[in-house]
Recover the amino acids of this structure.
């Protein structure tokens, strides 16, 4: 895994926001801008969806992205494709090494299946997504709902697949201060759930804050 | 059904090569998909017929069963922690659910131009538009297209993460049986797999045969495959109480 650093200095960012552990976030990034997510404390899964700002039914597509790049892992050089196979963002820097896009988001219902029926009341990424869409969706131009939740990216999460077809959630390969940075190839609306999962190693059993930063093109 | 068919047989239909199909499969029905040519691919999306916002969820299916592909014994989960259908028999051994479907631009690039005006009904179809065509009949659209299942196609993942399409994986007459645990709207396209390296446009026919079976019994191998599936089947039963 080749790690690629960014030339941008955090002090020159247009915008810097910390997303608390287990919190949702929604924001816009314009075409040509750079968008960085920093894993502040290490091994924090950041469940992320992208929508085309001027045509919200166009959205990030995990299947189109992995198929067209011929690889299931995302890292620097990966182009994130939409369901129309248009370029949404390009990963231009990555100091973690690889990111998952097969594992999806946790939900109350999948927690019941995966861990125990009693886990239904634990906080989950889908609850974050649904609440963010309910409160902020209209501000972003549309009455979003569950139909808009397709397979997401899990930045900093490690979900290895073996040639025999086994899929596991493994210990993270990220660490405090590692980041991933993307250049927007179209105007995008970003929806994040800073994952609250406590039942598997995706967050090292300890959800922590992350930071998002935006720069204009140099 | 042919005359003299057993009473539990429901119907039988041939889906042409490069065509699209949709229908209701009720709880307790088993549907057999048969690869007629040996090089077929059946791209499938699944929805709860009664609440179509509930649909097949690739990540939840794979995570619950720690697998990156579908085969006999696997349950296909919805986003609501319920089992839409389970795979009760399978002579193929591996069905892809990672790679999505082809689209108009990719088909044009790969196989050339073949519009209706020149080819009439032999015009080239693609997976995405075929699925949209069927979804539109139920007032569903682009927002409802999720990760599809590509029955009869095998794509493995190397340690590096690279995808590898296995040519010649299926064979003439290979089949997979889906036992429906819920009332399901199934949408199907018989277009080639998007990673099929064959240089020619040559989709294959898929035969569908449906019969009355019954919902999964207590000792069903799909249900007892793992504690996750025991809970998934339990959730499904609650929906029908």
């Amino acid at each position: 895994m080749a790690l690629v650093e960014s030339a941008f200095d955090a002090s020159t960012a247009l915008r810097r926001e910390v997303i608390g552990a287990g919190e949702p976030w929604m924001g816009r990034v314009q075409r040509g801008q750079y968008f960085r997510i920093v894993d502040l404390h290490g091994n924090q899964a950041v469940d992320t969806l992208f929508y085309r700002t001027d045509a919200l039914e166009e959205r990030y597509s995990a299947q189109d992205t992995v198929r067209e790049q011929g690889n299931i892992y995302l890292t620097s050089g990966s182009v994130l494709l939409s369901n129309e196979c248009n370029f949404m963002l390009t990963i231009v820097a990555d100091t973690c090494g690889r990111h998952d896009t097969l594992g999806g988001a946790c939900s109350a219902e999948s927690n019941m299946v995966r861990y125990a029926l009693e886990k239904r009341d634990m906080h989950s990424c889908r609850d974050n997504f649904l609440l963010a869409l309910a409160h902020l969706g209209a501000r972003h131009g549309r009455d979003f709902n569950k139909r808009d939740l397709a397979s997401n990216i899990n930045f900093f999460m490690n979900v290895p697949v073996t040639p025999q077809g086994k899929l596991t959630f493994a210990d993270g390969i990220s660490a405090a201060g590692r980041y991933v940075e993307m250049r927007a190839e179209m105007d995008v609306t970003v929806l994040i759930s800073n994952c609250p999962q406590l039942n598997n190693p995706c967050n090292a059993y300890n959800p922590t804050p992350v930071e998002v930063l935006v720069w204009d093109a140099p | 059904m042919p005359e003299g068919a057993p009473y539990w047989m429901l119907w039988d239909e041939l889906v042409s090569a490069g065509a699209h199909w949709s229908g209701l499969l009720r709880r307790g029905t088993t549907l057999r998909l048969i690869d007629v040519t040996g090089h077929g691919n059946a791209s499938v999306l699944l929805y709860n017929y009664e609440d179509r916002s509930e649909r097949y969820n690739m990540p939840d299916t794979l995570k619950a069963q720690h697998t990156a592909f579908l085969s006999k014994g696997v349950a296909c989960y919805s986003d609501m922690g319920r089992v839409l259908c389970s795979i009760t028999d399978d002579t193929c051994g591996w069905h892809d659910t990672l790679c999505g479907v082809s689209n108009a631009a990719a088909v044009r690039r790969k196989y050339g131009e073949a519009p209706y005006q020149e080819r009439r009904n032999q015009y080239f179809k693609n997976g995405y538009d075929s699925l949209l065509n069927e979804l539109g009949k139920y007032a569903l659209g682009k927002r409802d297209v999720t990760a599809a299942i590509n029955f009869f196609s095998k794509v493995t993942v190397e340690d590096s993460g690279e995808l590898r399409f296995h040519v010649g994986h299926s064979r003439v007459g290979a089949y997979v049986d889906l036992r429906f645990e819920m009332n399901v709207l199934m949408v199907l396209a018989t277009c080639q797999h998007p990673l099929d390296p064959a240089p020619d446009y040559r989709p294959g026919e898929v035969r569908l045969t449906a019969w009355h079976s019954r919902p999964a019994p207590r000792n069903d191998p799909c249900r007892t495959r793992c504690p996750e599936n025991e809970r998934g089947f339990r959730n499904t039963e609650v929906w029908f109480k």
Chain B touches chain A through 48 residues (CB under 8 Å). The CA atoms of residues 160 and 197 of chain B lie 21 Å apart. The longest strand of chain B covers residues 83-90. Chain B has a mean pLDDT of 97.
